Amino acid sequence: MNKEWIDIAEEICRRCGGICCVDAHPPVSTGRKDLMVRAGTSENVFEFYGYQRLAARSDGTCIMMKNGRCQVHGIKPETCISGPFTFDLHGNVLEIYLKRESLCPLVRYLKEDREAYDCQYEMAVKNITSLVEEIPRSELEVIVRIPEPETDKVAEIILTRGYV
Ligand code: SF4
Ligand code: SF4
């Protein structure tokens, strides 16, 4: 991934303070959970509500957020890495959506810089595909029912097999 874009994106996210980290409950694949636990994350931050996810504090802020920063930034869950791209799934069609600018300050920059957009898009598709392939079908069915308002579809990808 483009190092310059990573630095710019991290600065934008730092200034944003984590709008997307409120009421997020990101799904966590078992592989990603193991990675986080090996890196020192407590098992207590994970919970299961139809799917394995990160818990949140009483104000809705993700349990991994501290002083406006993600404590697992380098190994955060797949959907966190993918933001502001998100997904839906119909059979073997993976739909990729982009959040609107009103939800995420990064979006304006992505729309103005094709190279940055492509960079983030490729990262999102790689992580979302990996998540979809790894987590159980029953959990996927719960995840795809979660509403994702204020997003626009930007791509459809045909997967080699259907998941939900
Ligand atoms: S991805 Fe968007 S909403 Fe989330 S912290 Fe970064 S700028 Fe904010
Ligand atoms: S893991 Fe990090 S990036 Fe993801 S919702 Fe939690 S604090 Fe935000």
Summarize the structure in words:
The chain has six helices and seven strands. The protein has a three-stranded antiparallel sheet, with helices on one face. The protein has a two-stranded antiparallel ribbon with strand order 1-2. The chain has one domain. The chain is globular, with a radius of gyration of 15 Å. Helices cover 38% and strands 19% of the residues. The structure holds iron/sulfur cluster (2 copies). One iron/sulfur cluster binds next to helix 1.
Helices, strands, pairings?
Elements: H1 3-16, H2 30-38, E1 46-48, E2 52-54, E3 65-66, E4 69-70, H3 78-82, E5 85-90, E6 93-99, H4 106-112, H5 114-134, H6 137-143, E7 151-158
Helix pairs in contact: 4-5
The site of one iron/sulfur cluster has 11 residues, from helix 1.
Write a compact overview of the structure shown:
The protein is of the alpha+beta class.
The proportion of residues in beta strands is: 15-25%
Side by side, the strands of the main sheet go 5-6-7
Low-confidence stretches: none
Structural class: alpha+beta
Oligomeric form of this entry? single chain
Helix and strand sequence: HHEEEEHEEHHHE
Helix content: 25-40%
Number of domains: 1
**Could you give the distance between the termini?**
30 Å
Bound molecules: iron/sulfur cluster
Mean pLDDT over the residues: 94
Number of helices: 6
The best one-word shape is globular
Estimated radius of gyration: 15 Å
Total strand segments: 7
Q: Mind describing the biggest β-sheet?
A: 3 strands, antiparallel
